[in-house]
Amino acid sequence: MSPASLGSLQSHLYLSFLNGSTADVALHVSGTWDAVYYLHRVVLIQAGFFQSLFTSGFLESGGPSSSSPKEVKVRFPDSNITRPAFEICIARLYGGGPPLFAPPAFIPTHSVPLTPGLSMSNPYAKIPPGHQLASPRFLLSLLATSIYLSIPSTTSHAMSLILNSVGPRTVIRYLNFAIGQGMGSPDEDEPQSSSATGLEQVARHVVDKAESVNESYSLLDESNVELEDATEDEQAQKIDPAESHSFDEHEHGIHYGLLSDKIGEACASWLARWGTDMLEYEEEDQAGWRPYDTNVIRAAERHRSNFPRIWRRGGLSAAWVRALLSSDEFWIRGEWERYQVARRIVELRRKEGVLEEEEREWRSLFDSAIYYCHLPLEQLVSLSSDISPSTKDPYVPLSTIQAAHWTQSLLRHHIMTGSSASQNLPPASPGSRDKDLGIGILSASILSGITSGDIPKDRPYWLVPSDASRRIGESTPATNNTSSLSTSMSMDQLFQRTLSSGPKTIQHPITSEANFFGIHTPSYDAESCVAMDASGASRWSPYPPFRFGAEFWDVESLKEKTRLHSHTVWYAGNLFNVYVQVVRKKGVQLGIYLHRQSSVDPIPPASAPAPLLSPRNERGPSPVRAPSIPISTSAPRFGSPPLSSPLPLSPRLLTQTISLPVAGTPSPRSSTPGGTPVTSSYITAQNAWSIPALAPVHAPLQPFRDPRSTIAAFFAISCPSGTGSSLTRFSSAPDSFPIGQSWGWKSSTLRSEEYLETADGHGAPREVSLRATIILGLV
């Protein structure tokens, strides 16, 4: 059939839908609204729900023919299914319906990753005529409705728009949806309409009903489809179109299987990436509050703000706050900064009232979520006298501080004396005895220790990682043009672990609300170590790993094989930093590496944000910076030898923070102990306006130095995407680190819509950075 004929047929069907003409079924819908739709079965059976209803044994009993359409009653007990979303779904089956308009204010971009709407009083101000407003709430309703009806093309479009609109004003709504709390109430400025745009007349005999978005339903128990005048045997209960993606009766409401989890992953990744940035905004927004009112109702009544609540009450739950702040993926410079952020958030919540259920979470947070053993003695002493102004109690128990001091002293003893804390590993080769501290222990040895009474059941341990890579969250292209989306994806494909077609070697771990959608850092004691490892082969450390955050600016301006370093940290008698390096062969590859820095060589200066290339013009937009380089896919993990080069000058610091996307998967690492040599050089000089900019060198304090020339260390590097809705984590089993050794990964370029240049010639300054979180431990 020619395209013209197809277009004519589609137009004919859509007009029949709008007018209700020649309909052979009267669909009587009840749920959050009650109405009758005059429709056509041959069109409806494109959706899995109606195909099951009309062609899979759900047939009316034979009877005399009638010129009037047969009435079919369908009840939607899911309160996330609304009239506008339902009408859009039906219109799409007919090949029509209004185009969706997702407000740009909610969509993070390369130049404005925290979304233009963060500072807008009304993000819904400009809606094109004839378009259906795709507000965040509507998108969640559209997703729920299309899943229920089993319309994969609409489900795919809704998911794409949701994942690409995760930002400050949407992250809590989307997260609540992912954990089964429904789509939430409309935004204060969100325009309300009882029907879809342009489809006001397709519903007949409409009765609107009050929506109860927080009410829980069981789809499998309560949803049903009734055929009028049918016998009891002909009444049908809605069946799921694919058993692998059935709906779950969730603790709070309805959980949409893996699609709910994918939304949760995007939200968790975003919060780990942008959490510290949003805290500053929220503190400023709440600056006018009267402090420490313990009456929750009075505190809530005194202040109403349009600024999104994330850390404050009304945003994340206390359990989520604790999980994020304790996560290895949470971007923060170090443990001291992690503690400072934690106390600021806790006081922010306490200003709205002190609640005992939250205080239980805060006690757990300050007792075990922060690794105080990596803090110098001066900071440990200051912790002991740091008192909450709201409760008049210390944040950290004295026993926790004392245990941290003992732990760091014990680790120092092992390093300086070379004594082994454990003889529970297989005998080491002669070459590895010097580099191994012998502090690792196998699960089988922990079991033996528990049995003999040598190891207490509650002794904490930390898992030593293996070589692996994993990705949390999705990056799918968003568009308002439905015709540009693939309609060939089935519901089964949508419910696969990943929606993207990235490298097969990247693991997409099973996530859920129970593990905070992949960002939870579990804690283990001796008993749980044994319980989780039936093989007894996992390796554990009695010391918590060292964690720090790195940030790199203007990576795209790096010359080939030139290194751009993070700040240098001291851990267990050794200096470490992370650097990135661009390799321009067959496209662009960017490597990220952990480097053991010599304690006697000069410390390399760290990357810093550069000032704008010209002064800000008060009458016009600021100069636009070039975009940074997104990266994906991979090349082998490899090491590089030490370098000897002069150091650069460094001048400037700014506070604006924007991210560069990183994704990909490592191929098997090189079997050569020293890795592949890489010709490289430090950035050696810059004038006042050069890019990349470098910060003044600040050498960390070194309480002691590890006397070993080669150490064994495990590590992991996590890199969030540019807008933060996904992250990739590379982890390495213990490897040899002689002084000057680097280990890491390099990845090839991936361009995506969120990083393409805008065509209007205008824009905000592009202060783009690549962030990474690193964990590091000795064995």
TrEMBL record:
Residues 221-246, 604-643 are annotated as: Disordered. PROSITE patterns: BTB. Residues 223-234 have a biased composition (Acidic residues). Residues 235-246 have a biased composition (Basic and acidic residues). Residues 23-96 form the BTB domain. Transmembrane segments: none annotated. This is BTB domain-containing protein.
